[in-house]
């Protein structure tokens, strides 16, 4: 007598076995090793006072935060393997002028991805209830929604970077002119930077204040300006830092260098504006050719066609 196996029982058994395999793999992956035990004793201690350290942001639900923190950390490390490395994310956050840490950005990516998965699941359930459940397309829809949430978070950061860089490029000629006037009046470069940072308002003035803080901490002014150029990633600021460094080393007139750089930035902005205008002209032809022109032709031909039809 042959034994009969129920398909439902086979599916339940397969899912149970897969769950056991995942649990065992998870425990083995989180197993404490000798290196992790020795790391707290060998890691250099931070001598900074606890009052000056960056305090973690606590949510209104600390118990839930403690329960979900390990899972969010694992998901953040998994996203780090898929996306940009940690150093690149830190550089992009600096370029965007954001004060959040890399871990906070990874947690935000996890939240956006989870929201995308939830939206995809809701859409899949609605489509399945209306047209019937097809597992493969609906699962693909959920995964695509999660990937869209992940990409949307990264795209928002990219948009913030581009907007901030546009504002800094627009502010640079004015800042350079103010620095040139201050240096021409007889002030030292650091004093001129302090005056401009105290007077101006904008993204570039914030970067100048950060540069002055590095100079007060003991960094040379040329190195501090180079670090500012590296943080922003703008070619104009890179040329500005190099020009100021060369002027300070060789004793060349700094005011002329700053005025020349401001003029170069204005010329590059004018060229960019002309290129944007040329692209807009091409875009404006699309509704004219595909919408207005056909309607004009129809209005011109339709009365003649109607007259011919009446005559026939």
Automatic annotation (TrEMBL):
InterPro entries: T2SS_GspF_dom
Entry keyword Membrane: yes
Annotated Pfam families: T2SSF (PF00482)
Compartments where located: Cell membrane
Transmembrane feature ranges: 12-29, 110-130, 136-157, 282-302
Keywords on record: Cell membrane, Membrane, Transmembrane, Transmembrane helix
Annotated Type II secretion system protein GspF domain residues: 176-299
Membrane topology: Multi-pass membrane protein
One term under GO cellular component: plasma membrane
Protein name per UniProt: Type II secretion system protein
Lineage: Bacteria, Bacillati, Actinomycetota, Actinomycetes, Micrococcales
